[in-house]
Amino acid sequence: MSDKYRPPAVLALFLDPQHLLRAIAAVREKGYRGLDAYTPYAVHGMDKALGLKMSWMPRVTKTMFFVGATLGFTFEAWTMAWAWPLNIAGKPFISVPAYMPITFESGILIAGISTFTAVFIAARLRPAPNFVPLDRELTNDHFGLYVPVRPYESGNVQAMLKELGAVEVRDLA
Amino acid sequence: MSDDVNLHPAQLGPGPVVAEEPPIYRADINLTQVNRELTAAIFRRPNAWWWGGLLVALGMLNIGVYVIWVQLHVGLGILGLERPVMWGTYITDFVFWVGIAHAGTLISAILYLFRQRWRTAINRSAEAMTIFAVICAGIFPLIHIGRTLIAYWLIPYPNSRHLWVNFRSPLIWDVFAVSTYATTSLLFWYLGMIPDLATVRDMHPGKFARKVYGAVAQRWKGTARDWHHYEAAYGLFAAICTPLVLSVHSVVSSDFAVSSMPGWHDTIFPPYFVAGAIFSGFAMVITVVTIMRKAFSLEHYITIDHMELMAKIILATSMMVSYAYLVEIFMAWYSENPFETHIYIWLRFFGPYAWAGWLTVFCNCIAPLIFWFRRARRNLVVLFIMSIIINIGMWFERYVIIISSLSQDYMPSNWRYYAPTIYDVGTFVGSLGLFFTLFLVFSRFVPVISIAEVKSVLKHQVAEAAPLEESHV
């Protein structure tokens, strides 16, 4: 969702996660899709309520750990055995046990940086000095439900969300 | 329930018998109050204590800057470094600060994996402590290498002489381990901070401040999808930081253990150093947190129960450290190796370094036993004093390990008594000043307790979300 264009949608504000989760279940039952929730903290059970698939973060971390570790080991072996082979205390050029700590650390370093970058991509994070949130209370004690609607449905959805305990309902056009 | 306690487990019948966990935070705290109280230090003008603290910290930092400047001009000879003791207090300081850093990762990563929800009270400040302690640790080897301007030679890069670093050396492992640790901890810390920075962005009345917090909060909206990926990534960071923190101090201990010096060449070193690191790190957390909760009135977030839990971890790690000391001495005696018995038994406990050896034993093994008493664990004055004693003890532990082995090596004609000079003290004071300066500045601009994480474990929030989850599974 870009900041400039907003497709027609309804935003409902709730005062506790319980009402929000109940509203999500009800709205989904009516067949509305593409819902999103705004919460001040990670609400337990939200993934299931919205039917979110497992995050792809673990795959990034796992893959990049092995990529990083392979790169680390290859680099050590290349410098010590090919680029400038040097006899150090008669040890083999590829001293596997001695190369393990850096192999491991490279794996962790690349995995950490990649996971961090992946969150930024997945949650579309970027520095935004002029960012204005939908509502300033959404990082405080309000729980928002975002329902994309067709313009003519807006009234009905608003009434339904009010009935489900929303303290405030807003048309985002 | 009370009758059940006297029964044999087999007589209890089905169903788990779990004592109800006491709430982590007071039940009457609501979400707005969390926002207001945890950001109070950002919006309020700092009080005289804060300014006083900053002044003292900056003063200490200045001492450090001055003595480092002198050392760079005159050379490291003024440190009392002379054959055979070429690793003086600088390596002691390095190991000390890296050890301090480890408790932060333990709290943020390992306690997270163990679902210890009380960690939410202290994880932000402990992680900050990690970053600042690693910065302090990094200073020492950089000066200690003697030619600080070419410190970048430690990094393998293609150079005109086609030379590479020796990857078989534990000192190079250190470079990789500590820099990986610093980077990963910094990313983990910042990742944990983003939702709270967004909270401050949305609360701040100032236009300019909103822009600044908006920039660092990275457009955080707190949507379910954001949280979904964020929580996954947070857990993964915890999972990779756990082996990382164990590996970093194992690598640091390898600086000694991989050598062939009596007193250093010891397979017990990696686990023993990790336990010691957690021990001293938790002591430092107590030192910092005791002052912080008082200065920012956070008594009902960092409760005495949380302090007691930290005291219990200190007691446990103290006993691990004591056990390692005993094993070292026993092995030295049992081996009948004259070099080992000389260093471990004679030199450290009866020779010229006996004062430091016994100080270590007193501070790390005997004094923490007071935490067997519940009243001591719940007394802030005792906790604070003990945290200082433990950190003195842990500094001297490293001092004894490094100095005693070096000063009397295999060749008696080479022996020499080592004593640090005022410049050693000055640099250490400077690092303390840097640590506290960074911490005080941090506490003014970032919530020192994680707002989003505290909210997620407030009892009524958890209780409210729970029944619904079951209803539509």
| Main sheet record of chain B | none
So what's the overall shape of chain B?
Answer: globular
Average of per-residue pLDDT values of chain A: 90
> What gross morphology of chain A would you assign?
elongated
What is the straight-line distance between the termini of chain B?
Answer: 32 Å
Using only CA atoms, what is the Rg of chain A? 25 Å
* Beta strands of chain B, count: 0
Total beta strand runs of chain A: 4
Helix content of chain A: 40-55%
The largest pleated sheet of chain A is described as: 4 strands, antiparallel
Mean pLDDT of chain B: 88
Number of helices of chain A: 5
Proportion of helical residues of chain B:
55-70%
- Counting helices, strands and paired strands, the structural category of chain A is alpha+beta
Order of helices and strands of chain A: EHEHHHEHE
Series of H and E elements of chain B: HHHHHHHHHHHHHHHH
Report the structural category of chain B: mainly alpha
Strand order of the largest sheet of chain A: 2-3-1-4
* Unreliable spans of chain A: none
- Report the portion of residues of chain A in β strands: 5-15%
- Which strand-content bin applies to the residues of chain B? under 5%
Structure write-up:
The complex is a heterodimer of chains A (173) and B (473). Chain A has a 4-stranded antiparallel sheet with strand order 2-3-1-4, with helices on one face. Chain A starts with 8 loop residues before the first strand and ends with a strand. The mean pLDDT of chain A is 90. Chain A is elongated, with a radius of gyration of 25 Å. By secondary structure, chain A is of the alpha+beta class. Chain B is an all-alpha fold and 473 residues long. Helices cover 69% and strands 0% of the residues of chain B. Chain B is globular, with a radius of gyration of 24 Å. The N terminus and C terminus of chain B are likely disordered. At the A-B interface, helix 1, strand 2, helix 2, helix 3 and helix 4 of A face helix 1, helix 5, helix 6, helix 7 and helix 15 of B.
